[in-house]
Design goal:
The complex is a heterodimer of chains A (153) and B (738). By secondary structure, chain A is an alpha+beta fold. Chain A has 2 domains: 75 residues, Ubiquitin-like (UB roll) (Roll); 68 residues, [2Fe-2S]-binding domain (DNA polymerase, domain 1). In chain A, strands 2-1-5-3-4 form a 5-stranded mixed beta sheet, with helices on both faces. In chain B, strand 17, helix 10 and strand 18 form a beta-alpha-beta unit. In chain B, helix 10 packs across helix 11, helix 13 crosses helix 17 and helix 16 packs across helix 17. The N terminus and C terminus of chain B are likely disordered. Chains A and B meet through helix 1, helix 2, helix 3 and helix 5 of A and helix 4, helix 7 and helix 16 of B. The complex binds FE2/S2 (inorganic) cluster (2 copies). One FE2/S2 (inorganic) cluster (FES) sits at the interface of chains A and B. Chain B: This is Isoquinoline 1-oxidoreductase beta subunit. Chain B: GO terms for molecular function: oxidoreductase activity. Chain B: InterPro entries: Ald_Oxase/Xan_DH_a/b, Ald_Oxase/Xan_DH_a/b_sf, AldOxase/xan_DH_MoCoBD1, AldOxase/xan_DH_MoCoBD2, AldOxase/xan_DH_Mopterin-bd_sf, N-heterocyclic_Hydroxylase, OxRdtase_Mopterin-bd_su_IorB, TAT_signal. Chain B: It comes from Maribacter vaceletii.
């Protein structure tokens, strides 16, 4: 089986996997980074969102073979101990219900706030629209992104 | 009248205490029953025995309180709210309380809490009693140490004080407390003295969730574990005839391809199939691989030939059959008051309407998955399941193993919504592990999850009411549902008792499509049908829809009918509150409001939805909710549940659509199956009716009224009533019809 050199959360990792293996499964099965979740496998739910060179990306459709030399950040690497402003806001607002979608929501929100640190309510809704929360915690997700934006600013 | 504050909790012998070898006091108790005489308390914290007790409290020598409960969390917040109740009566500071879910190596988890709206309601008495008794034990121990009477001592935030003002921490007396007799009939606190209940506590698992720690079934892993992907019949009614696994076996990472199904079939044909009836009776092809991806790829490469076992069904045919049932006479009457036929015959006016809904998949965001390991000594099962006891029993019968060999460990669940009440997927992995004798995790793809699921049945209601001299004199509700829907208590919900001639009839269409509970089972669609009907009925009798409800409720007050489930006073309370808070009496230009009030899952709820027209389309902007759930244990968690229930209700009523053709669902993933998204979600404003009644659950009761409130608001906005879900596919805008 081929091997790939990935840089995940600042560390070099060697992954032995077939070239078409999505990053999602390489993270989960090979590297034991299970914070990135599987929801649909077709890019529709956002549960698998990670940052590739700082951009929020769906890891379920991204083959490991396309990722050498890229900076991959997962929820585990977003901050040392849950101290990222978005994580802090998520705690403050007590966003999660079942919690399964939340890593993906947080990764989408944190990348979004990098590009637009002072978004309007409407911009937040549109930015977060690709992340399904089956428990429908959308009201709190919107509020937490707004609070995180204040923390950053 | 159903009383809300009844307590049948046995006070005698409901908890046991012991001293831990490592120091500290351990108390074991059960939520629903007294503990067994012979139940033994461990002295080693790593050996908590959840077969005899379903929860433990440890008070350490440093005063820290740890609550151990194997209760899984589905997302309803019980893992936070239940310990709050214990801590309240125990008089400890919430910050000194830690909650731990069970202990991982426990052999037998039995008598688990099923989770859901029921947990809080049933646990309320037991949790308070336990906390209060533990507090008294510690006070008694301190009093003995000081040589004073316990009645002179009091406890606050984990510190006991006597009349002289001397103090002892809980941790200082744990050793002594374990040796004293367990006090009986300890007084509970008055709600006005609560310091923890009613405060906002953040989800106890929050740190793990926001930092991506392994919590869920899908995250579970063991050394040497392999992955399994299961190919099930693509259509309900089909069975496996043959398959070719050559291509699959050539995929790198695929270890083996096997079939399962025989053991499950034997169980299905046995006397006690239980919920294993949710299993398909067909053989299934299983791809075993050393990664999830290889297993999924392998499954796609299997070439299978399917044959028809039972006829393949379609929504089109169901629709016809359900209408036939409604037109026919094959009903079972579930409640009948007076004489509806006579009322209809003597009426000035009769209104009759039919409401229709599709099947609905659960779509838990975490797809079904489970771990199993089977060897000669043990059968170990790990994963997200709401009914571990049923699973252990079913697996023990299926694999012909003694119940003692089986252990079930529950993980956090990425959503339940009723799906994880059924353990068909866990049975499959048990059968797989029994064949391969290796630790294995079965992972469903979204497509597997959505197309081989258990569904909310398709249902049709026909409701008929008679009006005489401006009064509602008769009401008849007929239900026709695929595999049946309504159960015993529902016909005693509103408007039962308020209308003299009243009847509820049900009919069932037998189908090979698996159906079952779905969030707010039985009422999730019924509420929309009935409440939409009331709104139209109010128009017919030319009454304000709110006033019509209030007038009907007047007639129920003081009823001697103890079958009636709802309280007219409490329903009136939420109606008045929602009318006030939503501005229903002072409508804004361009905002169309839909009102409804509903009782289900022991909770009274009223909702007002605000709809505006944007680009000729109705958009749900706000929902105001008034809830009477008794004492609100954790407002932060409660509001989360309420908001989730409302938005979920709006989403499925607006978009939820799921049809069958030739036994096959028409959607298999989120590309075609539409779930509500962030930008479509209304803002929810929640208000509680304040009282000191026992708490009731909130995971379900705000969902059913949401669809109703929205449909009524859309009717006002568009001028057209909607009789079918999902609304987006069945509404006609005013502008379009001119
Ligand atoms: S799992 Fe990648 S978008 Fe759903
Ligand atoms: S919290 Fe359950 S899916 Fe979002």
């Amino acid at each position: 089986m081929p091997t790939y050199n990935l840089k995940v959360n600042g560390e070099k990792q060697v992954v032995e996997a077939e070239s078409d293996t999505p990053l999602l499964w390489a993270l989960r099965d090979n590297l034991d980074l299970v914070g990135t979740k599987f929801g649909c496998g077709i890019g529709q739910c956002g549960a698998c969102t990670v940052h590739i060179d700082g951009t929020a990306t769906r890891s379920c459709l991204l083959p490991v073979s396309a990722l050498e030399d890229k900076e991959i950040t997962t929820i585990e690497g977003l901050s040392e101990n849950g101290s990222h402003p978005v994580q802090q806001a998520w705690k403050e607002v007590d966003v999660p219900q079942c919690g399964y979608c939340q890593a993906g929501q947080i990764m989408t929100a944190s990348a979004f706030l990098e590009t637009n640190p002072k978004p309007t309510e409407e911009e937040i809704k549109i930015a977060m629209n690709g992340n399904i929360c089956r428990c429908s915690a959308y009201n709190r997700i919107q509020r937490a992104v707004a609070i995180a934006s204040e923390k950053i600013g | 009248m159903a009383t809300e504050n009844n307590s049948n909790f046995s006070r005698r012998g409901f908890l046991k205490a012991s001293s831990l070898a490592s120091g500290g006091l351990l108390i074991g108790f059960n939520l629903f029953t007294a503990c067994k005489q012979k139940a033994e308390m461990p002295i080693d914290i790593s050996k908590l025995n959840f077969a005899d007790f379903n929860a433990f409290i440890k008070i350490a020598e440093n005063g820290m309180v740890t609550i151990f409960s194997p209760n899984p969390e589905i997302g309803q917040g019980v893992k936070t709210s239940m310990p709050m109740i214990i801590a309240e009566e125990l008089n400890v500071a919430w910050k000194n309380v830690v909650v731990e879910q069970g202990v991982l190596d426990t052999e037998n988890y039995t008598r688990q809490v099923a989770g859901g709206s029921q947990s809080i309601r049933f646990g309320w008495d037991a949790l308070r009693q336990t906390g209060a008794t533990a507090r008294q034990m510690l006070i008694n121990a301190a009093a003995a140490k000081w040589g004073v009477s316990a009645s002179e001592c009091s406890a606050k935030e984990g510190v006991i004080t006597n009349a002289k003002g001397e103090t002892l921490g809980y941790g200082d007396v744990v050793k002594e407390a374990a040796l004293l007799e367990i006090p009986e009939n300890v007084a509970l606190k008055e709600p006005k003295d609560y310091t923890i209940i009613g405060t906002k506590a953040i989800n106890v698992d929050i740190d793990e969730i926001v930092s991506g720690k392994p919590l869920f079934g899908l995250d579970y892993k063991e050394e040497g574990m392999v992955y399994a992907s299961v190919l099930r019949p693509p259509a309900f009614g089909q069975e496996l005839e043959s398959f070719d696994a050559t291509a699959a076996k050539n995929i790198s990472g695929v270890v083996d391809v096997i079939t399962i199904g025989e053991k499950a079939r034997n169980l299905l044909n046995s006397e006690k199939p239980g919920w294993s009836v949710k299993l398909s009776s067909s053989d299934k092809v299983v791809v075993i691989a050393n990664s999830t991806w290889a297993a999924m790829k392998g499954k796609k490469a299997i070439k299978a030939v399917w044959k028809e076992g039972t006829p393949l069904e379609s929504t089109e045919a169901h629709d016809k059959e359900l209408v036939k049932l409604l037109d026919g006479k094959k009903f079972r009457t579930m409640r009948s008051d007076g004489d509806v036929k006579k009322a209809f015959a003597q009426a000035d006016k009769v209104l009759e309407r039919t409401y229709e809904s599709p099947f609905l998949p659960h779509n838990c965001l975490e797809p079904m998955n489970f771990f199993a390991s089977v060897d000669d000594a043990k059968v170990r099962l790990v994963g997200p399941i709401q009914t571990p006891e049923d699973l252990a029993t079913a697996v023990s019968t299926m694999l012909d193993r003694s119940l003692e060999d089986i252990s079930v460990k529950m993980t956090r669940m990425g959503g339940g919504f009723g799906r994880r009440l059924y353990g068909d997927f866990a049975m499959e992995v048990a059968e797989i592990a029994d064949v391969i004798r290796k630790p294995v995790k079965m992972v469903s793809s979204r497509e597997d999850d959505m197309t081989t699921g258990v569904y909310r049945p398709a249902i049709k209601y026909r409701i008929k009411a008679s009006v005489k001299n401006g009064e509602i004199t008769g009401y008849q509700l007929k239900e026709a549902a695929v595999n049946g829907n309504m159960y015993g208590l529902i016909p005693n919900f509103f408007p039962a008792g308020a209308i003299e001639n009243y009847q509820v009839d049900v009919a069932s269409l037998k189908s090979n499509i698996t159906t079952g509970a779905w969030r707010a089972p039985y009422t999730n669609f019924l509420s929309y049908a009935e409440q939409s009907f009331f709104d139209e009925l109010a128009e017919v009798i030319e009454k304000d829809p709110v006033q019509m409800r209030l007038d009907l409720l007047q007639k129920v007050k003081g009823t001697k009918d103890d079958k009636i489930q709802y309280s007219p006073e409490r329903l009136e309370g939420v109606i008045n509150l929602v009318v006030e808070k939503s501005g229903y009496r002072t409508p804004k230009e361009g905002v169309y409001q839909g009102f409804c009030a509903y009782y289900c899952h022991n909770t009274h709820v009223a909702e007002v939805a605000d709809v505006v027209m944007e680009n000729n389309k109705p958009v749900v902007k706000n929902v105001t909710v008034a809830v009477d759930c008794g004492i609100v244990v954790n407002p932060l968690g409660a509001i989360n549940q309420i908001e989730g229930g409302v938005v979920d209700g709006v989403g499925h009523a607006m978009y939820g659509d799921f049809k069958f053709k030739d036994g096959m669902p028409d959607s298999s993933n989120f590309g075609t199956y539409r779930l509500i998204r962030n930008s479509e979600s209304p803002k929810v404003a929640t208000y509680f009716v304040e009282n000191n009644l026992s708490p009731t659950g909130l995971g379900e009761p705000t969902l059913p009224p949401a669809g109703a409130a929205v449909s009524i608001a859309i009717t006002k906005a568009t001028g057209n009533r909607i009789y079918k879900q999902p609304f987006t596919k069945n509404m006609v805008a005013k502008e379009i019809i001119g």
